[in-house]
Amino acid sequence: MTDTTLILDADLAGRTGDDWLDTLEDVAEEHGYFEPLGPDHQAVFLAAGPRLLVTFEDAETITKTNEAEPRSFTFARQHGWSILSIISNTESWFRHPAIYQFFDKLTDEGTFDGFEEVLFFGAGGAGYAAAAYSVAAPGARVLALRPQATLCADVARWDTRFVAQRRHDFNSRYGYAPDMIEAAQTAYIVHSPQQKADGIHASLFRRPNVVQLRVPGIGGKFEATLDNVDVLDDVIVAAMTGDLAPASFRRLIAPLKSFGTYRRMLHKRAVDAGHPQLAANLAAAILRDGPDEFFQARLAEHKANGIHPRQNLSETAAE
Q1: Which of 28, 90, 123, 245 could crosslink 145 through cysteines, CB 3.0-4.6 Å?
Q2: Could you tell me which residues are beta bridge partners of residue 84?
Q3: How far is Cα 121 from Cα 131, in angstroms, rounded to an integer?
């Protein structure tokens, strides 16, 4: 099997609901297959090269993008990867017997054995799913952004963000994600130390094959922030090839330090934590790179409060 970049005339932009799904099915059937998985999930497979990217994605999020197509399509076009995208129409955490049976079938048929490298990818609830279903492909790699280990109340009652989703069964097959990564070659678990609940979930992934990757000073759905600085696709490529060590990850996300939203989050974090000196140092360091109205105003406020920046301290002090 050789890399074969796909020409995908998806024409999904602006479509929603059944119209979007019907068009997506047409694209999938041209290059692979489309398979409904119960009432609220679909599998889209596109056959290309010897690397397989397995993504878990949310239909609502997909249709809000400019192209309204699964993230995985980018890698079929640009890298010639085969792709398998499991798409959810609801906040299901991909918990449904039809999905269990689908991955059982792929395992029984040896589908994953036909690829040289396999990467499971997802973020949030999809990150949970990427880790949980990776057990179906021993030797695969996992890239999970801020994944939950489980939403089972017996284990994660402290996580009150997703109380409604606890109704899903997290105790049956493919259930507890930290156990399901046992057969993975490497599981990259990405989270922000400032998001306490995400950090606790990440700490439950303890096996020797886990690489913990931290993005300091960032909030909530930080995959959107990584997209805004055009680094997430590069992170996915590095994860596919197994080149995502902590040092290389830090190099890949280095553009964050020049991203205005990220810098403002760092400043707010320092202020909220009761460290105005660090906040003033950060504002001064950023202004040395060039004018910035936000940080000019913040620095003026710090000085008015008698807090003057110290010299030779970079913005890393706030991290």
Answers
A1: 123
A2: 45, 54
A3: 8
